[in-house]
Every structure is written in C-alpha cells, then in structure tokens.
C-alpha cells in the first residue's frame, strides 16, 4: 500500500496556514450574518474538509447542505461540463446561501452553481473558497470571502483529489506530475 506522501513534491499551504485563513473568513462571516439565517452549501467532494473546519470556526448558528458536482473526472483539466452527482435536499428559495468551496480553477463550477442557486430563488449567494488559481480563470467569479491565491500547479490534499486519491492529506501539496503523466515515465 502506497504512503500518502510518496507522490508529493512540496507542501504549498501548511495546515497552520489553512486554519488561519479559515478562522479569518469564519470571523468575518460570523459578523456579516449575525442577524441572518445562513445556509452553507458545500460543493462535494472537494469542499468536505473546508466545510468541516470552516463551520466549526463559525460563532453563529447555520444550516448546512451539500451538492456533489464534478467537472474533472479523472483528468487534471476541467471538462467544462458540470455533472450533478447529488443535489441539495434543501429548497434555497428565500435563503441566504454561502457556498463553501475548496478551489476556484477555471471558475466554471462556481459560475454554474451561483447561477443555479439564484435561479432557484436564493435571497443572496456569496462564496468562500479556500484556494484560487488566478492564472487559470476562464470566467470571473465574485468571491466575497477569498482564500489563498496559488500558482498554476496541480495540487491535492485537504479535500482536493487527483483521480479520487489524496483527499485525506492534511495540507495542500503539489502532486508529482509523473503521477498523471503515467505512460511517459
Ligand atoms: C474540483 C474542485 C472544484 C472545481 C474547481 O472539483 O473541487 O469544485 O473542480 O474547478 P473549476 O473552477 O475549473 O470548475 P471536481 O470536479 O474535481 O470534483 P470533486 O470536488 O469531487 O473532486
Ligand atoms: Mn469540487
Ligand atoms: Mg476533483
């Protein structure tokens, strides 16, 4: 059985940095929504760790729901097409929604989700994304609670996967390209 560190080149965002950013965003969100009924919508599967840490860092009461969206499949580039693997169980009509996401890459996933939640009648839709890759944006996303900007390297850990693996790494790290360049080794 392979060790989870075997295919990692370098750590890019430490667990301490992750926690600091999440605390900062959670403090701001707790202030901004102090008198509102907030629904957190986590984008599975990647946002699972961010949602868990972020929700525990909030000082206000919130509800949570989940939507499982996929655009990457087993590749390292967005297919540009969003597949809904699992929908929300909550009616968002009239709700104040905060989307919790692990990373904004091309922006296609969040562009789709923000429009979808507004179409369903959400009272407001804002975003907290732990990571962002500005070099790869194809669409602009308004992010009220931004996280770390990272370079254009394929990263895994803290929820982020390559081919469904490495999500359980406890920090954000650069994956050795030999893992996804398989046959060229
Ligand atoms: C990844 C990531 C974001 C999205 C970002 O999800 O977790 O949700 O891609 O990319 P984009 O800005 O180019 O749309 P993925 O499709 O890999 O599904 P997963 O969360 O289940 O891993
Ligand atoms: Mn995702
Ligand atoms: Mg993925």
UniProtKB/TrEMBL annotation:
Pathway: Purine metabolism; GMP biosynthesis via salvage pathway; GMP from guanine: step 1/1; Purine metabolism; IMP biosynthesis via salvage pathway; IMP from hypoxanthine: step 1/1. GO terms for biological process: GMP salvage; guanine salvage; hypoxanthine metabolic process; IMP salvage; purine ribonucleoside salvage. Residues 14-162 form the Phosphoribosyltransferase domain. It holds the Pfam family Pribosyltran. Its EC number is 2.4.2.8. GO terms for cellular component: cytosol. It catalyses: IMP + diphosphate = hypoxanthine + 5-phospho-alpha-D-ribose 1-diphosphate; GMP + diphosphate = guanine + 5-phospho-alpha-D-ribose 1-diphosphate. Its main location: cytoplasm. It is found in: Cytoplasm. The keyword Cytoplasm applies. NCBIfam families: HGPRTase. Belongs to the purine/pyrimidine phosphoribosyltransferase family. This is Hypoxanthine phosphoribosyltransferase. It comes from Bifidobacterium callimiconis.
